[in-house]
Amino acid sequence: MAVAKLEQLSQSVAQDPSMATGAVPTNDWMDIPVVFKPGNYAYPAKKDKVEYLDSQKGLHFPNAREWSPEDDDWKLPENWKEIIIDGLGERLEKFRSLKIFMDCCVRCGACADKCHFYLGTGDPKNMPVLRAELLRSVYRNDFTLAGKILGKMAGGREMTVGVLKEWFMYSYQCTECRRCSVFCPYGIDTAEVTIMLRELLHLVGVGINWILEPVSNSNRTGNHMGLQPHTFKDNVDFLTEDIENLTGIKIEPTFNRKGAEILFITPSADVFAEPGLYTAMGYLILFEHIGIDYTWSTYSSEGGNFGLFTNNEAMKKLNAKMYAEAERLGVKFILGGECGHMWRVLHQYMDTMNGPADFLEVPTSPITGTVFDNAASTKMIHVSEFTADLIKHGKLNLDKSRNSHVKATYHDSCNTARAMGLMDEPRYILDHVVDWVEMPENTIREKTFCCGSGTGLNTDEIMELRMRSGLPRANAVKYVEEKHGVNLLSCVCAIDRATLTSLMDYWNPNVGVCGVTELVGNAIVLEGETRGELDEGLRTMVF
Amino acid sequence: MYNKGLIVSGLVIFVLLVTFPIWFNGLDAGPLPKPELPPNGTKECVAPVAEMRAKHMQLLNEWRDDVIRNSNREKIVVAGVEYGKGLQLACMECHSNKEKFCDSCHEYAAVQPTCWECHITPTEAAKKEAQ
Amino acid sequence: MKYGLPLVAVIGLILVAWLGSMIPGMQYFFGVAIPYLAVLVFLGGFVYRVVQWGKSPVPFSIQTTCGQGKSLDFVKHDRLESPHTTTEVVARMALEVLTFRSLFRNTKSELYDGPKITYESSKWLWLFALLFHYSFLIIVIRHMRLFLNPVPEFIVWLDWADSMFEIGNPALYLTDAGLLIGLIYLFSRRFTNRQVRYISLSSDYFPLLLLIAIGVTGVLMRMFLRGGIDIAAIKQLGVGLVTFSPVITADIGSIFYIHLFLVCALLVYFPFSKLMHLGGVFLSPTRNMRNDSRQVRHINPWNPDIKVHAYSAYEDEFRDFMVESEIPVEKEPEPKEEPAEAPA
Q1: pTM for this structure?
Q2: pLDDT for res C338
Q3: Architecture of C4-283 per CATH?
Q4: Looking at the domain assignment, is residue B11 inside a domain?
Q5: Within 13 Å and on the Cβ side, how many CA atoms surround A77?
Q6: Do C50 and B3 touch (CB under 8 A)?
Q7: How many domains does chain B have?
Q8: How far C51 CA lies from chain B's nearest CA (Å)?
Q9: pLDDT digits (tens, 9 = 90+) for A329-385
Q10: What's the domain range around B48?
Q11: Complex ipTM value
Q12: Chain C residues within 8 A of B30 when measuring between CB atoms
């Protein structure tokens, strides 16, 4: 699906009649059916991937088949409705959040214009409140006294195939970024609603390939990209060659090494494609510089967890590899790379799902001796926490001028900001390695805007949608680009590094994207290096 | 995690708050106001009892406005009896004991009329005279 | 019409109480039976709903962090927005419940050609919501003068403070004005804000209209329609109700029964509606949890037993590649060829 030209899309966003531009649909939202056409949906999961996942112990991904959202008949199981209603009932019993969020919304509308999908598409069903109403209307109809008696008058509606299709459309136009939950007076979190919608849809075999293929890859090969152990190692080795070319220093990382002190896990995208590769080079240089005893793992070679975007069972199964591998290798603690949803899982879910990790020790920096009490139970720390502590103790030999070709800004990843509270560590690091400025106040920290392609929506067939939903972020970058000459957007998220690159190419082509650790790696003065002038830092082509 | 203890204690507090009047009164409705009937034995007033109970404050306001703001001191005649427009000119002539008449209901219903910020009660008047 | 039906419903309620209370003998039905029933439904329903919520666990630690979490010593921890201890959570919740902290953050976005999006602070909703809720709270507390005998000094003082400007006689309560102004703003917002208008349901208009009707009948009764409003008799009924000895000793005006009936309708409606946000706000997991999930393990009572895709299975599948790339393995591969001859 070709993406509209910049001028066309620019005009469309600001002028086409939409809820966001001031036009109100004349029909009630319940009476507007969804229409699937190329470009507005992500491709459904391939049959073999669903079959593979369904065959895995503890996972349930039924109804593998060939189908298309554009077809009238989605080949749902005969008793699909019963499955959905029962599934909803079961989840209401399992998640208090779901009950509260179904019952307490007063439709004050504070969330309405907080969603990047709403701002970019103007589609009223992308207002968080209405996205939740898609589920709430069915909940009211089948699970509340008022709805059972009054039906539509109480805002209830029957579960139909049309409703199911609507769920598919809009639960995949939400990146679970939680920006709306910051503004909600009751803390209603649309991410919880979207998570439930997606779980329910998987019960009847409705899911997208861009999520289920990485999940199945990750289960089998250890990472989303499907890199097999030798390829994973090769990829890292290529990076060490690049580093040698740039600095004259040969780094020799180890893999699956028993007895290492630290297990390092980062999103596999970092060893797979630009610009994540440069961030991975940053890690390698950083660890070489301080000389820690660490190992990579090919078995647990994925920091990210697309299971979070399917159901809690898949999330748990994939996440379990981290502790399993840490225990097998006998490390003391785990160090995690830069990633958003990875850290949502690690910070809020991992210990609950797969802990207690009593075979590990409370993370202690081998260089500074700092004890990371904030990770005393999970025993996993974020590379930004680790690095900020190193800088604070003066353990890094940094030459900020090596990043003088850069004027950076910083994008808070939704998950590290709103599901972890990691905001100032990366900023502290940036202060020491680069000249940088903040984007406008309402677009950073807990109010940060999503890249527009999180939760497995970073697939190319919905590129226009992604450019629309990423617009609020791009717009804020454009502001600092024009005002301060910003040319690099730094972040601590692997999905960001990939998706913001497409977003910048489209909206702000003069702005690049990097991980914070890339800037750290580039500023580090390695002992014995023979580094020349590198105009573009680690990105400089050296022959 | 259920936080059962917290939820139950929250609910107990809520129920106790909502039912506070029950505990406060302790099933005892307390004394009822018994406004003293005019000691001078008068039976008639400017309006029927029910109307006086509900609307006397508005009538007093009208009188005040008439007299003070409009200088209209014309007396009113009800059932052949002439009354001056005023708390002391009319009301207190019969209901001569503020404490036993006015205050009885006002205290019961926690009403704080502003009459006595200007007027003085017959009791006070008597005291002053004695001095 | 999303607001038509609620309007008809509220008018219907008013008519029922008005006509009904004029039928001889029905005063006890509207003044005693209905209030008892309403309070029972309210309390029972409220407790039932909260217990139903409580029966579902909070399986994961899903706090929304709205500020810097506790980490390194030199990184300033935002204790209110990213609470790490129970005390800090209590403080965060207090801000949320008492000052509507999250609503205070509200912004309004505008889309311009370019495209360019702006976000400006928008505090009206916060302001009027606060005005309405606090007015309502004070009004409820103030009404205790009709149920408590003797009336505690605090309530006497509140009553005095609320009517201190002495507008009209009996004096207008400021909170009555606050309540109605707040409600009218919230109601008109549902018409004028296109987004809110589009999402509003009958169940959003109904409680607003009901509350407006309650406020208006209250003000009318106090200040304008005083016929039959014998406050001593009304209090005698009020105190009678809470001491389980209710009596109606006077011919109380219809406006009183209408007001009371509407309040009863609100109490009955409350537990089965969105008004339960009163209880829900305390139970919202994104706000009432500590952000210490890496420090203290949160327990999920239904944590499913799901085994990892084992390392052994992984190595079995990729052992040859691993050996070839010099990645350590647990089990050496089967030798490809048998040694030619066993040593002698």
Answers
A1: 0.95
A2: 58
A3: Up-down Bundle (1.20)
A4: no
A5: 16
A6: no
A7: 1
A8: 8
A9: 999 999 999 999 999 999 999 999 999 999 999 999 999 999 999 999 999 999 999
A10: 32-130
A11: 0.94
A12: 149-150, 239
